[in-house]
Amino acid sequence: MAEETKSTATTSVTNEKPTRQRGSRRDDRRNAPRTDEPKQFEEVVINIDRVARVVKGGRRFRFKALVVVGDRKNKVGVGVSKGLDVQTAVAKATEVAKKNMITVPITNSTIPHDAEVKLSGARVLIKPAAPGTGVIAGGVVRQVIGVTSISNLLSKSLGSTNKVNIAYATIEALRSLVPKDKWLTASKSTSSSQKESK
Questions:
Q1: Containing structural domain, residue 70
Q2: Helix or strand (DSSP H, E) at 158
Q3: How many separate helices (H) and strands (E) can be counted in the chain?
Q4: pTM as predicted
Q5: 172 exposed, middle or buried (CB, 10 Å; 0-12, 13-18, 19+)?
Q6: Is residue 56 part of a domain?
Q7: 10 falls within a domain
Q8: Half-sphere exposure of residue 194, counting CA atoms within 13 Å on the CB side?
Q9: Is the predicted pLDDT of residue 120 greater than 70, yes or no?
């Protein structure tokens, strides 16, 4: 009888799951309610390059990230930065992009007028399009326009194929746009000045 009781006691102990002390913190994190706020800006990594710097002892490798940031409305920015690993480079580039954001004038889900900008070796041409056209653009230009609320646009990338230059040329083209209401006030002011001169 004593042997039977010992065996039942051992089976009951073995059936119980041992409490894990190592994974308790991880489990707490998983079970904890998530309090993530919705992100104000959308981040898109356009390109990541591995760059090298030659020093006395050999070559030092780092990563260069090109990131575009936008709020899906009328704000957009581009940033380039380097870091020892990919995550650091992307985080630094995102901060640079957020600091250098521009406001794009948007009229009926397209841009108000044509714009062509040459920056370094890249040349970017953007044109307004009729509703239903969509965004007709190449890789980098499409990604930059994609984080804004522009849904109809025609574009052509001419010259250099360097992604950094194309991204900055696109931003400069968007920066050069003049809102439609500024045209009207400009035309009114010129007509009124002409009347006064008469």
A1: 42-178
A2: strand 153-159
A3: 6, 8
A4: 0.71
A5: middle
A6: yes
A7: no
A8: 6
A9: yes
- Assigned domain for 77 exists: yes
| Chain segment 25-70, per-residue pLDDT in tens | 555 555 555 555 467 888 999 999 999 999 998 999 999 999 999 9
Amino acid at residue number 20: R
SS3 call for 160: coil
**Number of domains within the chain:** 1
pLDDT of residue 179: 85
Separation between Cα atoms, residue 108 and residue 150, nearest integer Å:
9
- Assess if residue 71 is contained within a domain: yes
DSSP labels, 34-100: P-PPPPSSEEEEEEEEEEEEEETTEEEEEEEEEEEEE-SSSEEEEEEEEESSHHHHHHHHHHHHHHT
106: CB partners within 8 A, 6+ apart: 74, 148, 149, 150
Q: Which of 89, 85, 106, 110 is nearest to 43 (CA)?
A: 89
Q: CATH no. for residue 81?
A: 3.30.230.10
Tokens representing 140 are 């980098």
